User: Which sequence fits this backbone?
């Protein structure tokens, strides 16, 4: 197995120069750096990652804590994180906090103890213990998908990357109102999550824009999961004046709502219209095809990596929040005719 000394001899440089190229601990002339890289390639030299981390105090690894197993949306985000991390030469350590505050802090501590250079975390509905740990240990961290306000972050603020939630939800409501619906129900997410709060705000803004009176009975939490959404949908249908249209606030809850509607023998959109937040791979295969808000899942993951690497390069810079736009995907579950939903994938705008 070739050694660093073999690389140095092949490139005609010192072992120290090879070390500086590998560890980026000192600037090296471009032609010298290229000679070292060529020798590494020719010899098939593999750096000792452990030794390298001792020199640089970096492991070139990123910890990712998201509920990827229980939430298909986070699976796409994970793909974006992984691709961007590999592109920049970082490995990925993954933990699932299960949206449980206590478990969340534990898995983040485990990732930190494995000396990851930084963390990307989708915080739970109660992230106080998480934020306290991250702040106490000054762990470079990007909060993903779900934001926290300054009151929750008891120490220094964190970088945050998420999608727009308010305006896209309002657009679903105004679209349904434009089709003549006057009672539009919302199957909301888990209370405490910023995404839940922002989408509820968007729902209410949509009602105002459409000139519809608010009715708090039309907002029922589905707790961001399928079973809860089925119960929430059944509760909405049991109202004396049930909704004629539904907005579901994530993909798992869309499945639960559809199950509840089927259990009551209701057809979409003939008996009740449906629009959902979160597009997903099979939304275009349903009959009718689901009108949805599509989040830029993979782009969110990749952007979180970019923001984290910027933080590692400039630890003292001010924290920033990045918002990425969503797309309205016009299909037919809202009650629009097939010919009005342009193309097999709908209309994105």
Assistant:
């Amino acid at each position: 197995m070739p050694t660093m000394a073999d690389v140095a001899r092949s490139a005609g440089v010192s072992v120290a120069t090879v070390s500086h190229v590998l560890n980026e601990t000192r600037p090296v002339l471009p032609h010298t750096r290229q000679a070292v890289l060529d020798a590494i390639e020719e010899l098939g030299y593999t750096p000792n990652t452990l030794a390298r981390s001792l020199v640089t105090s970096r492991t070139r690894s990123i910890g990712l804590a998201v509920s990827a197993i229980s939430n298909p949306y986070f699976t796409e985000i994970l793909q974006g994180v992984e691709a961007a991390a590999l592109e920049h030469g970082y490995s990925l350590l993954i933990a699932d906090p299960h949206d449980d505050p206590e478990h969340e802090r534990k898995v983040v501590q485990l990732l930190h103890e494995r000396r990851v250079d930084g963390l990307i975390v989708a915080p739970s509905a109660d992230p106080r213990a998480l934020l306290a740990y991250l702040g106490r240990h000054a762990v470079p961290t990007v909060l993903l998908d779900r934001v926290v306000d300054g009151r929750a972050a008891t120490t220094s603020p964190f970088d945050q990357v998420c999608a727009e939630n308010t305006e896209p939800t309002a657009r679903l409501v105004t679209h349904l109102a434009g089709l003549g619906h006057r009672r539009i129900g919302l199957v909301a997410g888990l209370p405490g999550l910023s995404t839940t709060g922002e989408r509820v705000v968007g729902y209410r803004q949509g009602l105002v824009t459409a000139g519809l009176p608010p009715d708090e009975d039309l907002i029922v939490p589905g707790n961001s999961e399928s079973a809860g959404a089925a119960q929430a949908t059944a509760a909405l249908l049991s109202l004396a004046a049930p909704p004629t249209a539904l907005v579901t606030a994530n993909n798992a809850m869309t499945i639960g709502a559809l199950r509840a509607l089927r259990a009551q023998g209701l057809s979409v959109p003939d008996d009740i219209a449906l629009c959902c937040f979160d597009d997903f791979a099979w939304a275009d295969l349903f009959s009718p095809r689901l009108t949805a808000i599509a989040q830029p899942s993979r782009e969110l993951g990749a952007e979180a990596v970019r923001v984290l690497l910027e933080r590692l390069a400039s630890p003292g810079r001010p924290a920033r929040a990045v918002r990425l736009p969503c797309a309205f995907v016009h299909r037919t579950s809202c009650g629009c005719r097939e010919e009005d939903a342009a193309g097999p994938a709908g209309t994105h705008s």
Remarks:
- The longest helix spans residues 194-210.
- DSSP finds twelve helices and twelve strands in the chain.
- The CA atoms of residues 288 and 333 lie 5 Å apart.
- The longest strand covers residues 61-65.
